[in-house]
Amino acid sequence: MNHTQMTLGVIVGNRDFFPDQLISEGRSDILEVFAELGIRAILVDEDTTKLGAVETWEHAKKCAALFKQHQDEIDGILVCLPNFGDEKGVAETIHLSGLQVPILVQAYPDDLSQLIPSRRRDAFCGKISVCNNLYQYGYPFTVTEQHTVYPKSDSFKADLRKFLGVCRVVKGLKRARLGAVGARPNAFNTTRYSEKLLQSFGISVQTIDLSDVFGPARRLADDDMRVKERLERITAYVNTQGVPSPSILKMAKIGIVLDEWMQSLDLTASAIQCWDSLQHNYGVNVCTLMSMMSEQLMPSACEVDVTGVVSMYALQLASGTPSALVDWNNNYADNPDKCVLFHCGNWAKSFFGDEFKMEYAPILGSTLGDENTYGVVSGRTPAGPFSYARVTTDDRHGVIKAYVGDGMFVDDPLDTFGSRAVVEVPGLQGLLRYICKHGFEHHAAMNASHAAAALSEAFETYFEWEVYHHVG
User: Global pTM?
Assistant: First the structure.
């Protein structure tokens, strides 16, 4: 996984007629768990407010001021309730801070053997009051799987890991800058989308015409040091045995132009018109370049599928690992819960075992000429966890919607070419009916993780998108 350290603002709620010891224990527990998971905590210290907790208006102002000092660093807020807490103190802290980040609310359970004045918490009840206030203030928030949970428990650590994924998705998508390279293939109405709907959630799209890529690429000299360096990177990345040298040279040159354009605009992801202008006018596939970008956590999607790359990027943010764009492509014999995922060959190499190589694209080659389609990455994904997602702009209703779910990559026999996998999804036929009935594309994003819960929470709670979370 590739995760930079996450930073959470922590509000420890308190009501002063509960035992002080519970607050001190709560702070200690949270900081211990944060240290274990590599999370940085921003919270008031015990000299700034009583016990380093938040209860009064004065406490709220001090905690909010601290959060404001670190507003560019804080990815989310954890509300910890070792006791009933103070509902106004929590809500007012968030309001005064001005932060617009995901919020996780955790409450301690009571011990039935210690429902005595010196150990009683009542956080079970207090959590409901805090959530009521957050709702009144209009703040979206996340709750733990169990209503009350100990911070050191595996259950809470799972909640926290999921919440970190939610924070990454929300923060990443709100500032995503995507590149659309070329016009969508004319035959693909399915990849149409609304830039304006995406922009309303902070996702911007920058465009470039293929002519502005081909021209500079052709002007690059064969002995340019950038070209030599890119050739070395390509041949180190994938087995190119049997691929004509001129095809690899063309890939290297176009890769340089794409990289420089993306860097000049600070782009985080791209969607490329991978056929058929490239083959007709430049004589190569760019699948390997797209694979390399996705492997470097700069996802790249086929066929100018911009909302497809949004889906890829969201899964990547949730998991910290590369994503790929796939076709829901073939049934798997008569097994209703299995199918074949396929694309010509632009999946990141993380999806393959040791056996993957560069080839030509036999399907495109049948009409465009095999010699013009070298550059695909061919390999098979081994067994393991599998998440899928699809974001789309539903222009007829003026909304963004999505579906997400988890399944498994399986090692069942498959004799074919290209980038490919066999997956098992419980209740797959119901999912496919949903996809068809609700007008989703044949493309989906996939990731070698189980990240659907984090995506569902991020999309539904913090973006208010219509989300179908398939659980079979």
Answer: 0.96
